[in-house]
Specification:
Blueprint: H1 3-16, H2 36-39, E1 40-44, E2 49-51, E3 57-62, E4 68-72, E5 78-86, E6 95-102, E7 113-119, E8 128-134, E9 148-150, E10 161-167, E11 171-176, E12 179-185, E13 198-205, E14 225-237, H3 259-272, E15 273-276
Antiparallel strand pairs: 1-4, 2-3, 3-14, 4-13, 5-10, 5-14, 6-7, 6-13, 7-8, 8-9, 9-15, 10-11, 11-12
Helix pairs in contact: 1-3
């Protein structure tokens, strides 16, 4: 059997299977988790944030008075950043729970950002997980997002699941339970974040756009809206790290993805991806040259 035929058959089996595939590599299990206050500080809404006594977990919530957020103590230039997150069931329309990298405070209006965002929903409809990349932000008055959205293959409100971002000078990879769901390669310095970023978590009211483009708003009859985070893995290089510093590897070879991981990503995208900015005919793709380069 030829190698090309074997790969085609494996891709077909991944596509047809409803069970989560084995990616062959599990970075979320390779590294020790961090205590909350060793890695983060409260950013806003301290009265809406509760840290367990052993600092293994944090709960943040949104009500009509405030949301809450936390921020890493240090910036990074690369690394692996993960957390296990459990979302709230029921009516959560308009509410965003986020885990992301950003330098918005250092470069307001001209920032870089790499997002994992959970878009709130209405009962009976699934959460949408949105991944996004901004490069030098909205300094020209236009926010140029690079969104890819997914419906998950599990209920994210029933248990904790792991979500992670691997960021190197060459690529960004998004993981869900160690399944790579998206790879964003560096194709040019103009389409890739290279400046230091901090790691954040937050919950906030985004009623203007979060659910069905703002059709459904946050309804505070259902408050508080709660998000729980645990098993923080923060394995990154800071701007002051020695040159030999390397973030946690994203694959057995140390960088990129293995063939098995690529097949797992194909499984996730072919079955669960619900939006890809590069395939949106309404977008101005002169602003996103990586879609056609």
């Amino acid at each position: 059997m030829s190698l090309a035929l074997l790969i085609s058959l494996l891709l077909l089996s991944f596509h047809l299977s409803t069970a989560q595939p084995n990616p062959g590599y599990y970075p979320s299990y390779r590294f020790k988790s961090s205590q909350f206050y060793r890695a983060f500080n409260n950013l806003w809404g301290p009265q809406h944030q509760s840290v367990t006594g052993d600092q293994s977990s944090v709960t943040i919530w949104l009500d009509r008075n405030s949301g809450s957020g936390f921020k890493s103590r240090h910036p990074f230039i690369s690394g692996y950043f993960g957390a296990s997150i459990k979302l709230q069931p029921g009516y959560t329309a308009g509410v965003i729970t986020a885990f992301y990298l950003s330098n918005n405070q250092a470069h307001p209006g001209f920032h870089d950002e790499v997002d994992i965002e959970f878009l709130g929903t209405t009962p009976g409809k699934p959460y949408t997980l949105q991944t996004n990349v901004y490069i030098r932000g909205s300094g020209d008055g236009r926010i140029i997002g690079r969104e890819m959205k997914f419906h998950l293959w599990f209920d994210p409100t029933a248990a904790f699941h792991n979500y992670a971002i691997s960021w190197s000078p060459y690529e960004i990879i998004f993981f869900v339970d160690d399944i790579p769901i998206r790879r964003y390669p560096k194709k040019s310095a103009n389409t890739f974040p290279l400046r230091p970023m901090w790691l954040y978590g937050s919950i906030w009211d985004a009623s203007s756009w979060a659910t069905d483009n703002g059709k459904y708003k946050a309804d505070y009859r259902y408050q508080p809206f709660v998000a729980r985070f645990t098993k923080f893995i923060v394995r990154g290089c800071s701007p002051w790290s020695p040159r030999r510093c390397r973030g946690a590897p994203s694959s057995p070879s140390g960088g990129g993805l293995s063939n098995r991981q690529y097949m797992a990503m194909h499984w996730a995208q072919s079955r669960y991806m619900v939006y890809n900015y590069c395939r949106d005919p309404k977008r101005d793709h002169s602003l996103t040259p990586e879609c056609w380069s």
